[in-house]
Amino acid sequence: MIAPSVTPYGTLPPASPVATRKPISLPRLNEMRERGEKITMLTAYDATFAAVADAAGVECILVGDSLGMVCQGLSSTVGVSLDTMRYHTESVARGVRRVQGTSWIIGDLPFGSYQASREQALHSATVLMQAGAHMVKLEGGGWTTETVRFLVERGIPVCAHLGLTPQTVHALGGYRVQGRGDTAEKLRHEALALQDAGASMLVLEMVPAALSAELTLALTRCHTIGIGAGHGTAGQVLVMHDMLGINLGKNPKFVRNFMVGQGSVLEAMSAYVRAVKDGSFPDNTLHAW
Ligand code: KIV
User: What's the whole-model pTM score?
Assistant: First the structure.
Protein backbone atom coordinates (compact mmCIF):
# COMPACT_ATOMS: atom_id res chain seq x y z
CA MET A 1 0.00 0.00 0.00
CA ILE A 2 1.41 3.42 -0.90
CA ALA A 3 0.46 6.57 1.03
CA PRO A 4 2.04 9.25 3.22
CA SER A 5 2.45 8.04 6.75
CA VAL A 6 3.20 9.50 10.15
CA THR A 7 5.41 7.38 12.40
CA PRO A 8 6.76 8.03 15.92
CA TYR A 9 10.06 8.91 14.21
CA GLY A 10 8.74 11.44 11.68
CA THR A 11 6.66 11.52 8.52
CA LEU A 12 7.53 9.33 5.60
CA PRO A 13 7.44 10.73 2.07
CA PRO A 14 4.26 9.92 0.07
CA ALA A 15 5.92 7.24 -2.07
CA SER A 16 7.00 5.11 0.92
CA PRO A 17 5.46 1.79 1.94
CA VAL A 18 3.11 2.79 4.77
CA ALA A 19 3.24 1.80 8.37
CA THR A 20 -0.03 -0.10 8.02
CA ARG A 21 1.39 -2.98 6.02
CA LYS A 22 0.69 -6.53 7.14
CA PRO A 23 3.38 -8.56 8.96
CA ILE A 24 5.99 -10.01 6.62
CA SER A 25 5.96 -13.81 6.31
CA LEU A 26 7.51 -16.30 3.90
CA PRO A 27 4.32 -16.41 1.74
CA ARG A 28 4.37 -12.57 1.56
CA LEU A 29 8.02 -12.61 0.48
CA ASN A 30 7.10 -15.19 -2.18
CA GLU A 31 4.28 -12.93 -3.41
CA MET A 32 6.69 -9.98 -3.63
CA ARG A 33 9.10 -12.03 -5.69
CA GLU A 34 6.28 -13.20 -8.00
CA ARG A 35 5.27 -9.62 -8.75
CA GLY A 36 8.92 -8.61 -9.23
CA GLU A 37 9.15 -6.45 -6.12
CA LYS A 38 12.61 -6.31 -4.54
CA ILE A 39 13.01 -7.41 -0.92
CA THR A 40 14.75 -4.99 1.45
CA MET A 41 16.87 -6.09 4.37
CA LEU A 42 18.89 -4.05 6.87
CA THR A 43 20.78 -5.05 9.97
CA ALA A 44 19.66 -3.73 13.35
CA TYR A 45 20.86 -4.65 16.81
CA ASP A 46 18.66 -2.77 19.25
CA ALA A 47 14.99 -1.94 19.86
CA THR A 48 15.03 1.67 18.65
CA PHE A 49 16.78 1.22 15.32
CA ALA A 50 14.75 -1.93 14.66
CA ALA A 51 11.52 0.00 15.23
CA VAL A 52 12.68 2.78 12.88
CA ALA A 53 13.61 0.24 10.18
CA ASP A 54 10.22 -1.41 10.59
CA ALA A 55 8.46 1.96 10.33
CA ALA A 56 10.52 2.83 7.21
CA GLY A 57 9.15 -0.25 5.45
CA VAL A 58 12.23 -2.50 5.63
CA GLU A 59 10.85 -6.02 5.13
CA CYS A 60 13.61 -8.03 6.81
CA ILE A 61 15.72 -7.05 9.80
CA LEU A 62 18.90 -9.06 10.18
CA VAL A 63 20.32 -9.20 13.70
CA GLY A 64 23.72 -9.79 12.14
CA ASP A 65 26.82 -10.95 13.93
CA SER A 66 28.35 -7.82 12.35
CA LEU A 67 27.30 -6.44 15.74
CA GLY A 68 30.68 -7.77 16.87
CA MET A 69 32.28 -4.98 14.89
CA VAL A 70 29.72 -2.15 15.05
CA CYS A 71 28.48 -2.65 18.63
CA GLN A 72 31.31 -4.46 20.40
CA GLY A 73 34.32 -2.95 18.60
CA LEU A 74 35.79 -6.34 17.64
CA SER A 75 37.95 -6.71 14.55
CA SER A 76 35.87 -9.59 13.11
CA THR A 77 32.68 -11.55 13.81
CA VAL A 78 34.61 -14.56 15.15
CA GLY A 79 34.39 -13.45 18.80
CA VAL A 80 30.60 -13.03 18.94
CA SER A 81 28.82 -15.44 21.32
CA LEU A 82 25.40 -17.06 21.14
CA ASP A 83 24.40 -15.30 24.35
CA THR A 84 25.24 -11.92 22.79
CA MET A 85 23.15 -12.82 19.72
CA ARG A 86 20.26 -13.85 21.99
CA TYR A 87 20.42 -10.51 23.86
CA HIS A 88 20.37 -8.43 20.66
CA THR A 89 17.68 -10.58 19.01
CA GLU A 90 15.44 -10.09 22.05
CA SER A 91 16.05 -6.32 21.92
CA VAL A 92 15.24 -6.11 18.20
CA ALA A 93 12.10 -8.24 18.61
CA ARG A 94 10.86 -5.99 21.42
CA GLY A 95 11.48 -2.87 19.30
CA VAL A 96 9.66 -4.30 16.27
CA ARG A 97 6.69 -5.42 18.39
CA ARG A 98 6.46 -2.13 20.27
CA VAL A 99 5.49 0.08 17.33
CA GLN A 100 4.42 -1.56 14.13
CA GLY A 101 5.41 -5.22 14.39
CA THR A 102 5.67 -6.13 10.73
CA SER A 103 9.32 -6.82 9.88
CA TRP A 104 10.63 -10.37 9.48
CA ILE A 105 13.46 -10.89 11.98
CA ILE A 106 16.50 -13.01 11.11
CA GLY A 107 18.88 -14.10 13.86
CA ASP A 108 22.47 -14.80 12.84
CA LEU A 109 23.99 -17.99 14.27
CA PRO A 110 27.46 -16.94 15.43
CA PHE A 111 30.78 -18.68 14.81
CA GLY A 112 31.07 -21.88 16.86
CA SER A 113 27.33 -22.20 17.54
CA TYR A 114 26.44 -24.61 14.69
CA GLN A 115 29.65 -26.23 13.41
CA ALA A 116 30.00 -29.06 15.98
CA SER A 117 26.84 -31.03 15.12
CA ARG A 118 23.30 -30.69 13.77
CA GLU A 119 22.07 -30.99 17.38
CA GLN A 120 24.25 -28.06 18.41
CA ALA A 121 22.80 -26.06 15.50
CA LEU A 122 19.25 -26.97 16.58
CA HIS A 123 19.96 -25.88 20.15
CA SER A 124 21.47 -22.54 18.98
CA ALA A 125 18.66 -21.90 16.49
CA THR A 126 16.10 -22.62 19.23
CA VAL A 127 17.75 -20.00 21.46
CA LEU A 128 17.43 -17.33 18.70
CA MET A 129 13.88 -18.35 17.69
CA GLN A 130 12.79 -18.17 21.35
CA ALA A 131 14.44 -14.74 21.55
CA GLY A 132 12.09 -13.53 18.78
CA ALA A 133 13.72 -14.46 15.45
CA HIS A 134 11.49 -15.75 12.64
CA MET A 135 14.42 -17.30 10.78
CA VAL A 136 18.07 -18.09 11.45
CA LYS A 137 21.06 -17.47 9.19
CA LEU A 138 24.19 -19.55 8.93
CA GLU A 139 27.25 -19.25 6.74
CA GLY A 140 28.77 -21.57 4.16
CA GLY A 141 27.93 -24.40 1.77
CA GLY A 142 28.99 -28.04 1.60
CA TRP A 143 28.66 -29.58 5.07
CA THR A 144 26.14 -26.91 6.15
CA THR A 145 23.60 -28.32 3.67
CA GLU A 146 22.67 -31.20 5.98
CA THR A 147 22.45 -28.81 8.93
CA VAL A 148 20.05 -26.60 6.92
CA ARG A 149 17.92 -29.65 6.06
CA PHE A 150 17.87 -30.74 9.74
CA LEU A 151 16.68 -27.31 10.91
CA VAL A 152 14.12 -26.82 8.12
CA GLU A 153 12.64 -30.29 8.75
CA ARG A 154 12.16 -29.21 12.37
CA GLY A 155 10.21 -26.09 11.43
CA ILE A 156 12.99 -23.48 11.52
CA PRO A 157 13.21 -21.26 8.40
CA VAL A 158 16.83 -20.87 7.30
CA CYS A 159 18.71 -18.17 5.41
CA ALA A 160 22.01 -19.43 4.01
CA HIS A 161 25.03 -17.22 3.23
CA LEU A 162 27.59 -17.80 0.45
CA GLY A 163 30.40 -15.83 -1.16
CA LEU A 164 32.36 -13.81 1.36
CA THR A 165 31.46 -15.49 4.65
CA PRO A 166 32.93 -13.23 7.36
CA GLN A 167 33.12 -15.98 10.02
CA THR A 168 35.70 -17.76 7.87
CA VAL A 169 37.59 -14.61 6.87
CA HIS A 170 40.87 -16.09 8.14
CA ALA A 171 40.47 -19.20 5.99
CA LEU A 172 39.46 -17.07 2.98
CA GLY A 173 42.53 -14.85 3.39
CA GLY A 174 40.68 -11.57 3.83
CA TYR A 175 37.53 -9.66 2.84
CA ARG A 176 37.68 -10.28 -0.90
CA VAL A 177 35.37 -11.10 -3.80
CA GLN A 178 34.39 -14.78 -4.03
CA GLY A 179 33.06 -16.88 -6.92
CA ARG A 180 35.40 -15.70 -9.63
CA GLY A 181 36.92 -18.12 -12.15
CA ASP A 182 36.96 -21.79 -11.09
CA THR A 183 35.24 -21.14 -7.77
CA ALA A 184 32.04 -19.99 -9.56
CA GLU A 185 31.04 -23.60 -10.26
CA LYS A 186 31.47 -24.59 -6.59
CA LEU A 187 29.31 -21.65 -5.54
CA ARG A 188 26.58 -22.60 -8.07
CA HIS A 189 26.59 -26.18 -6.82
CA GLU A 190 26.44 -25.12 -3.15
CA ALA A 191 23.60 -22.66 -3.77
CA LEU A 192 21.43 -25.26 -5.52
CA ALA A 193 22.14 -27.82 -2.77
CA LEU A 194 21.13 -25.30 -0.09
CA GLN A 195 17.86 -24.61 -1.91
CA ASP A 196 17.21 -28.37 -2.16
CA ALA A 197 17.86 -28.67 1.58
CA GLY A 198 15.10 -26.11 2.18
CA ALA A 199 16.89 -22.78 2.62
CA SER A 200 14.31 -20.14 1.70
CA MET A 201 16.75 -17.23 1.57
CA LEU A 202 20.39 -16.92 0.54
CA VAL A 203 22.68 -13.97 1.22
CA LEU A 204 25.25 -13.57 -1.55
CA GLU A 205 28.11 -11.39 -0.31
CA MET A 206 30.77 -9.94 -2.62
CA VAL A 207 29.95 -12.21 -5.52
CA PRO A 208 30.30 -11.11 -9.18
CA ALA A 209 27.07 -9.42 -10.38
CA ALA A 210 26.65 -11.78 -13.35
CA LEU A 211 26.91 -14.87 -11.14
CA SER A 212 24.44 -13.61 -8.53
CA ALA A 213 21.97 -12.65 -11.31
CA GLU A 214 22.32 -16.13 -12.81
CA LEU A 215 21.76 -17.77 -9.40
CA THR A 216 18.69 -15.61 -8.79
CA LEU A 217 17.08 -17.01 -11.95
CA ALA A 218 18.10 -20.57 -11.07
CA LEU A 219 16.91 -20.47 -7.44
CA THR A 220 13.14 -20.31 -7.84
CA ARG A 221 12.38 -21.42 -4.25
CA CYS A 222 15.04 -19.40 -2.46
CA HIS A 223 15.28 -15.58 -2.39
CA THR A 224 18.77 -14.26 -3.11
CA ILE A 225 19.73 -11.21 -1.06
CA GLY A 226 22.81 -9.41 -2.32
CA ILE A 227 25.45 -7.36 -0.57
CA GLY A 228 28.15 -6.20 -2.95
CA ALA A 229 26.69 -8.65 -5.47
CA GLY A 230 25.15 -6.33 -8.08
CA HIS A 231 21.48 -5.56 -8.65
CA GLY A 232 20.30 -8.86 -10.16
CA THR A 233 19.33 -10.43 -6.82
CA ALA A 234 15.80 -10.75 -5.41
CA GLY A 235 16.70 -8.34 -2.62
CA GLN A 236 19.46 -6.33 -0.98
CA VAL A 237 20.97 -6.08 2.49
CA LEU A 238 23.29 -3.51 4.05
CA VAL A 239 24.82 -3.12 7.48
CA MET A 240 22.87 -0.25 9.05
CA HIS A 241 25.95 1.61 10.34
CA ASP A 242 27.45 1.54 6.82
CA MET A 243 24.38 2.98 5.10
CA LEU A 244 24.02 5.68 7.79
CA GLY A 245 27.65 6.68 7.26
CA ILE A 246 28.65 6.02 10.90
CA ASN A 247 30.89 3.00 10.40
CA LEU A 248 34.07 3.43 12.49
CA GLY A 249 36.16 1.84 9.75
CA LYS A 250 36.31 2.27 6.00
CA ASN A 251 33.04 1.65 4.17
CA PRO A 252 33.18 -1.12 1.54
CA LYS A 253 33.07 0.24 -2.02
CA PHE A 254 29.56 -1.10 -2.70
CA VAL A 255 27.95 0.85 0.20
CA ARG A 256 26.00 4.07 -0.33
CA ASN A 257 25.59 6.60 2.50
CA PHE A 258 21.81 7.07 2.56
CA MET A 259 22.00 9.85 5.20
CA VAL A 260 23.28 12.23 2.53
CA GLY A 261 20.47 14.67 1.73
CA GLN A 262 18.14 13.23 4.40
CA GLY A 263 17.00 14.85 7.63
CA SER A 264 16.58 11.78 9.82
CA VAL A 265 17.42 8.10 10.19
CA LEU A 266 13.82 7.28 9.24
CA GLU A 267 14.18 9.23 5.99
CA ALA A 268 17.54 7.60 5.23
CA MET A 269 16.10 4.11 5.72
CA SER A 270 13.06 5.02 3.69
CA ALA A 271 15.36 6.32 0.89
CA TYR A 272 17.18 2.96 0.99
CA VAL A 273 13.88 1.08 0.67
CA ARG A 274 12.84 3.22 -2.30
CA ALA A 275 16.24 2.92 -4.00
CA VAL A 276 16.25 -0.88 -3.72
CA LYS A 277 12.67 -1.11 -4.96
CA ASP A 278 13.10 1.24 -7.92
CA GLY A 279 16.41 -0.42 -8.85
CA SER A 280 18.59 2.66 -8.35
CA PHE A 281 20.59 0.86 -5.64
CA PRO A 282 22.90 -0.84 -6.17
CA ASP A 283 24.30 0.77 -9.27
CA ASN A 284 25.92 -2.11 -11.15
CA THR A 285 28.54 0.17 -12.67
CA LEU A 286 29.71 1.45 -9.29
CA HIS A 287 28.95 -1.38 -6.91
CA ALA A 288 29.76 -4.61 -8.71
CA TRP A 289 32.75 -6.68 -9.66
O1 KIV B 1 26.27 -10.05 10.04
C2 KIV B 1 25.86 -9.39 9.08
O3 KIV B 1 25.56 -8.20 9.18
C4 KIV B 1 25.73 -10.07 7.79
C5 KIV B 1 25.44 -9.21 6.61
C6 KIV B 1 26.69 -8.57 6.14
C7 KIV B 1 24.77 -9.97 5.52
O8 KIV B 1 25.89 -11.25 7.71
Answer: 0.94
